[in-house]
Automatic annotation (TrEMBL), chain A:
Broad class of the protein's primary localization: membrane
Record keywords: Cell membrane, Ion transport, Membrane, Sodium, Sodium transport, Symport, Transmembrane, Transmembrane helix, Transport
Compartment list: Cell membrane
Protein name: Sodium/proline symporter
Cellular component terms (Gene Ontology): plasma membrane
GO biological process per UniProt: proline transport
The keyword Transmembrane helix is annotated on this UniProt entry: yes
Family: Belongs to the sodium:solute symporter (SSF) (TC 2.A.21) family.
Gene from which the chain derives: putP
Swiss-Prot/TrEMBL catalytic activity: L-proline(in) + Na(+)(in) = L-proline(out) + Na(+)(out)
Organism: Stratiformator vulcanicus
Transmembrane segments: 6-27, 39-58, 70-91, 120-142, 190-208, 215-234, 269-290, 302-323, 349-370, 402-421, 427-450, 457-474, 494-517
TrEMBL record, chain B:
UniProt keywords, alphabetically: Membrane, Transmembrane, Transmembrane helix
Chain intervals for the UniProt region annotation (Disordered): 74-94
Transmembrane segments annotated in the record for this chain: 27-53
Source domain of life: Bacteria
Keyword check for Transmembrane helix: yes
Protein name according to UniProt: DUF3311 domain-containing protein
């Protein structure tokens, strides 16, 4: 119960922050969606970092390290330190400049203008929304799992309706029981719903300013509490009072296959480098880039991002590897669901008060991404569909904000509905979601740096990206095959590769070949002069 | 110097594929597996490289051009020159 009270207080604090931010609301949709371009370097760093560090970074990385060992860090953390900042540098600053000059709020506005194609918005909008949904799903699923995991054993049978307490029936038809369902914790369906509602409320009250503040606050919370979690788990796991002695004892117990990358293919590891390209096409990051007060605001995020990733990921990866040692017995149900490894360790090794704070830290990481994604979906709907097709005089600012909120609620309801089904590993689902965005990276890069991109080339790129993604996702059994790779045999040697590699190659080739073949459909000289001015 | 910075970025990407520590379970400082330590060093090196990039490869010309085109006194943005119907404050080019 103590954990629940602490989590409740934390959620109330967030609501208070959102309401406070709403007192500074200037009443315009521009202020609601972009905080009137007022975000400085520190807030930009914290909000961008908080947005990119999701349940994937904490719950997912710990679980994947438990499953595959320390190689997880190289697969996604150190590569992100290089590639994310590269994207901020090459794309973020240029898009910020164009957004400032031509008043863009969303990616689709930029693509419509750059390619002189109205219909490209109709193609891109459902694709971007569809790709954001699995990203939201990661957060919604993980928040429910974490709260349930740390509160297990708190409630008597009958506290919640039986359909929430008992869970699904077994495969042989045996009805579920509390022992196989919520295990006396807050049912995960209820916990996920609560988190969705809290995030919705503070996003609705605070808009982008409230979201940026909440992100900064939550990023500080999860970084500090993450370090406390690391200390507590290390010392309690080993029984050592000195942190250094505890670290040594815990790491010496890691089995060799988890302390190395023996079980990871070198070619798959190499092709993981394509996954972080996704930040170039995240709609919520595009919106965050446009909140920057000045271009100088980008310097701090570009430099500090790799270090911040390291601060969060190294402890999580170590904790996941320690959990494979003989210092702790991980029960089979937890082993079978790697999302539960971190909540299990927190519950088992921290007391109720500390456990409550640590859980708040994990939830902070999850919510600091959900909020930006919620806001961005609403912005996309109003700007790219409602205002674009309805006409800018049809809706006043108040109506625009209401429309944004209605669309957000509809998408959150859909995501919540998906979260009720059998959960997938957060890490695996995250990689699929990021791979889809990575496949669209050639589009934004080409539009910014190559005058020769044509409208048919852009359509071909998008269709190649999404069709290869759908096909490979289907081939993987919709992420059921967690180790799905595409294997290429060259000179008798087989090289497993991540699906993202094939997707990026397909979309890049489609963009280049079709653009070269359709140069007569190039945008007008006036448009090209606008995006590629003579210096 | 600009080329040196971009050369360092390429070098980082190459060094990221550290096949030499693939099956080495040595613990650096007695507690951090070398494969993890090496990649943490890659993260630090990336931050340093990006620091150099902001010093020597910062797109100052692009930024100055943007500032010149935006009218700071009015506190709003110039209307879209190609699609004049696009309203800067509402953010939606026509």
């Amino acid at each position: 119960m103590t954990q629940l009270i602490i989590i409740g207080i934390y959620l109330s604090l967030l609501l208070g922050l959102g309401i406070f931010a709403s007192t500074l609301f200037r009443g315009t949709s521009k202020d609601y969606m972009l905080a009137s371009h007022s975000i400085g370097p520190f807030l930009l760093l914290m909000s961008i970092f908080g947005t990119t560090m999701t349940a994937f970074a904490l719950v997912g990385s710990t679980g994947e390290s438990f499953s595959r060992g320390i190689g997880v860090y190289g697969m996604l953390a150190s590569s992100s330190g290089i590639i994310h900042s590269l994207c901020f540098f090459l794309l973020g600053i240029k898009l910020w400049s164009l957004g400032k000059k031509y008043g863009y709020t969303t990616q689709i506005q930029f693509f419509r203008d750059r390619l002189e194609s109205d219909k490209i918005g109709l193609l891109l909008f459902p694709i971007l929304v569809t790709l954001v949904i699995p990203y939201l799903l990661i957060g919604v699923m993980a928040s429910g799992g974490v709260i349930n995991g740390v509160t297990q054993g708190t409630f008597e049978a009958g506290t919640f309706p039986s359909f929430l307490e008992n869970g699904d029936a077994a495969e042989d038809g045996t009805p579920g029981t509390m022992a196989t369902g919520s295990k006396g914790g807050v049912p995960r369906e209820l916990a996920s719903l609560t988190i969705c509602v809290v995030v919705l409320i503070y996003v609705f009250f605070g808009g982008m300013r409230g979201t940026a503040w909440a992100n900064a606050f939550q990023t500080i919370v999860f970084m500090i509490l993450g370090m406390v979690t690391f200390y507590v788990i290390a010392t309690k796991l080993t029984g050592e009072s000195s942190l250094f002695a505890a670290l040594q004892k815990a790491s010496e117990a890691i089995p060799k296959e988890k302390a190395t990358r023996i079980g990871i293919s070198q070619s798959a590891f190499l092709t993981y480098l394509f996954v972080p390209l996704s930040v170039g096409m995240f709609p919520h990051l595009f919106q965050h880039w446009l909140t920057a007060k000045s271009a100088a605001s980008f310097k701090l995020p570009v430099i500090a991002h790799p270090i911040f990733i390291m601060i969060v990921w190294v402890p999580c990866v170590l904790v996941g590897a320690w959990a494979t040692s003989n210092l702790i017995q991980i029960p089979p149900p937890i082993q079978a669901n790697q999302n539960l490894v971190l909540p299990f360790l927190v519950k088992k090794l921290a007391g109720p008060v500390l456990g409550g704070f640590l859980t708040a830290g994990i939830l902070a990481a999850i919510m600091s991404s959900l909020d930006s994604q919620f806001l961005c979906l609403g912005t996309m709907f109003t700007e790219d569909i409602a205002v674009h097709y309805g006409g800018k005089d049809r809706f006043n600012d108040k109506q625009t904000v209401v429309l944004a909120r209605c669309f957000i609620i509809a998408i959150v309801a859909l995501t919540y509905f998906f979260s009720l089904f059998e959960p997938r590993a957060v890490f695996v689902l995250g990689v699929w979601c990021f791979s889809g965005f990575s496949a669209l990276f050639p589009l934004v890069f080409g539009c910014l740096y190559w005058r020769g991109v044509t409208k048919p080339g852009a359509y071909a790129c998008i269709l190649a990206a999404i069709s290869s993604w759908v096909y490979l996702f289907w081939k993987s059994g919709f992420a059921e095959d967690e180790r799905y790779t595409l294997d290429f045999t060259i000179a008798g040697t087989t090289y497993p590769t991540m699906p993202v590699f094939t997707m990026v190659v397909c979309s890049t080739l489609a963009l280049i070949i079709v653009s070269l073949a359709t140069q007569k459909w190039k945008p007008t000289e006036a448009t090209l002069a606008k995006f590629f001015p003579e210096r | 110097m600009r080329y040196v910075v971009w050369g360092l970025v390429v070098l980082l990407i190459v060094l990221h594929q550290d096949v030499w520590y693939w099956d080495d379970a040595t613990l650096v400082f007695g507690f951090i597996p070398i494969g993890l330590f090496y990649h943490a060093c890659i993260s630090v090196a990336a931050a340093f490289t990006w620091f150099l990039a902001t010093k020597f490869a910062w797109p100052q010309d692009l930024i100055e051009e943007t500032v010149a085109e935006v009218n700071p006194e009015a506190g709003s943005f110039r209307a879209n020159p190609v699609n004049p119907g696009g309203d800067a404050e509402a953010g939606a080019p026509a």
